[in-house]
Fold:
Amino acid sequence: MGAFFLPAAPRENGGAVKTPYEAQSSGNGRLIKCRSELQYRLWPPETMGNRMTGDPHISLLASITWLSDLDPPPEPAVADWLLERGSMTRRFERHCQRVSIRRGREGYFPAQALGEDEVALLPPCERYWLREIILCGDDRPWLAGRTLMPENAMDGAEWALTTLGDMPLGRWLFRDRAPERDFIQLGRTAGLWARRSCLRPNGKPLLLTELFLPDAPLYC
Ligand code: PHB
Structure:
């Protein structure tokens, strides 16, 4: 079970983060003084303004192995999550009181700064909009997400992608109806499941990679 190529989707419808930690620079990472515990420990993720940098869950996105047809398929309950064609945020909302977003890197990045394989799934462009997030259910990290869209496709309503802020992407993507989805490819890393899809909001290509973190309800 590698990539699922799907027919057209059905027409269904800044301020600084308040942190309890004091940061100091130190060699490999940042030495963080936890005021509450009065002890020092190394604590990723770091933050820059209200952004996470170096989040270990987001870093895992780069190590996903995409499956081929020869790999064993996920068990049905997991496949049901991975092949979800509606809004994943809405699905998560059925399993918690509150979904929230922690933002990582966001901005235009040159093609050379991105993964060759992911750029190859999108039309060529000099720069791509990148958004990396952690989606939390009741403050527990459930999903690492990475969105890419070629800059030259963002000449209409897609510009809204740059202003999402802490709003989950799905609220924009699925605002009227599910966008077309070209494929769902399944992947694995560190014993976790991942998927990626090329979606087409307003016909514009958007590559969305999602890694389901250990606390996510699909492992329950
Ligand atoms: C995002 O806000 O970027 C986002 C939200 C939920 C996902 C993927 C990405 O499943």
User: Anything to note?
Assistant: The first helix runs from residue 56 to 60. The pocket of P-hydroxybenzoic acid is lined by residues 88-89, 101, 131, 133, 135, 143, 145, 147, 168-170, 208, 210 (CB under 6 Å).
